[in-house]
Amino acid sequence: MTLSLVPLDWSPISDKTKRCEICNRVAFGKHYGALSCYACKMFYRRVVVKKLSYKCRGFNECSRSPKRLLKCQACRYQKCQDKGMYMEPLEDDEVKSEEASDDGILELTSPNQKIEKLSILLKNLNIMDKKRHAKLKSFYSLNDESLETILMHPGVDPDHQVTPEEWAFLALYSHITYFHNFEFIRELGMDDKKKIFQYNTLKLTYFCGLMRTLNEKRMRMLNPGGQEIYPDDLIDLYRTNPHNLARICCQPVNRLIELKVTNEEYCLMNIIFFCNP
Question: How many contiguous H segments (helices) and E segments (strands) does the chain have?
C-alpha cells in the first residue's frame, strides 16, 4: 500500500536545497531508491509501467547537460537506472487496470475497481490501526529513546511492561511505527522524517485518543490504562480552575459523537491530517 505526498508549494532554491539526482532540479525525497523530483519520479514510473523503450538520437551522452537530458528520454531513463531507481514490473492484468491521466498520475479505469481498491485500503488501514492500538497497550521501554532513534529503528519494540506514567511516550512511539508502514515515509530522508513527525505526532496522538475514547463509549478522554492524561503537576496547577482541562478531554469527544465518525472515516482523516499539516 503506497500513498504519495504532493508538495503544497514551491520553496525558493537555496544552497541547502536537496537536488534531484537525475535532472538537478529541486528534489522532494527519495523515490524508488533515488533522491528525485516528482517529474523524474513519474517519468520513471511511466516507463516501467508501460514498458516503454527509447533510443538516443545522439551518442548516449545527453546526461552531461541537464537541458539535453530532459529532452532525451533514453538518457534520462538510463540515468534513473544509474542512480539506483528500481520498481517491480507490474503484471499484465495490473497494467491493463491502470490508465495514465493528463497529469501523469495512474488511475483505475473501472468504477468497480476504484470501489474495490478503496475498500481494501480502508480494511488495511483499520487493521493497521488495531495493531497500533494493541501494541500501544502491550509494550514499554526504559531506554528513553529519542525521536531519531525511533525513526532509525521503527521495528524494534520496547522491552518492558507498561506503566501508567509512560502512556504519552508510548502513544508517540506507536504512531511513528504505524506511519513507517507507508512507503512514502520509508523513502524520506532522516531530516524530513524528523520534521514531519515533530510537527504531526502530538496532534495525531490527541486525535487518536479521542477516537479511542469514543470506541470505549466514554464521555471523557483517559489514557489506555484508565488514568488522567495530564501529569500530576499540571493537575495541581489547574486545581482551582479545572474547567479548561476538562474541556480538552470532553468537548471534542462530544463533537465526534455528533458527527457519528466511523472507524473508516477516522483512519482516512488520520492520513489526511498527517499528509497535510
Answer: 12, 4
Residue 130's alpha-carbon distances to 28, 57, 118, 126, in angstroms, are 31, 55, 18, 6
pLDDT band at 25 (very low <50, low <70, confident <90, very high): confident
The helix or strand, by DSSP H or E, that contains position 270, with its residue range, turns out to be: helix 263-275
Q: What is the domain extent for residue 247?
A: 113-275
Torsion sign (Cα): 254, 257, 259, 261: positive
Closest alpha carbon to 86 in 21, 34, 19: 34
- Distance set, CA 162 to CA 133, 166, 189 (Å): 13, 7, 31
> HSE-up of 275 (CA within 13 Å, CB side)?
15
- Kindly state whether residues 102 and 200 are assigned to the same domain: no
SS3 of the chain: helix, strand, coil, percent, to 5:
55, 5, 40
Q: Binning pLDDT at 50, 70 and 90, where does residue 154 land? A: very low
Q: Which helix (H) or strand (E) element contains residue 269?
A: helix 263-275
Instruction: Give the pTM.
Output: 0.45
* Final residue in a domain of this structure, among 61, 84, 109: 109
Distance CA 19, CA 36 (A): 7
**Do 105 and 124 share a domain, yes or no?**
no
For CA atoms 276, 14, 29, 11, the dihedral sign is positive
Spatial contact of 196 and 188, defined as CB atoms under 8 Å apart: yes
Distance in angstroms (rounded) separating the CA atoms of residues 56 and 268: 44
Supply the Cα-derived Rg of the chain in whole angstroms. 23
Q: Above 50 in pLDDT, residue 147?
A: no
Higher pLDDT, 16 or 1: 16
